[in-house]
UniProtKB/TrEMBL annotation:
Protein name according to UniProt: Uncharacterized protein
Keywords, comma-separated and alphabetical: Membrane, Transmembrane, Transmembrane helix
Domain of life where this protein originates: Bacteria
TM annotation in the entry: 12-36, 43-63
Amino acid sequence: MEAFFKSLYGIAYFAMSIVLVAVTVLLFVIGIRLFIKKRNRGFALSCILFACFIVFIIVVMLTTPFSATPPGSPEAMAALYRYG
């Protein structure tokens, strides 16, 4: 049963990553198109900057390994004090 839930977690993680990347690319393209058309330049620039920030967050999410310990557990707090 544990292997089943691990595989479900992997599928959900992959699907969530694909959706996040697709929405980010769409937001970036909308910002570029608005910026080129010289309409709503402030909104276009904020779309572009937000998309760049989200790319950073996606990269951090995909490169950070998942931990089985919950964030508030004593083991996680000890690890924070040890490495933080």
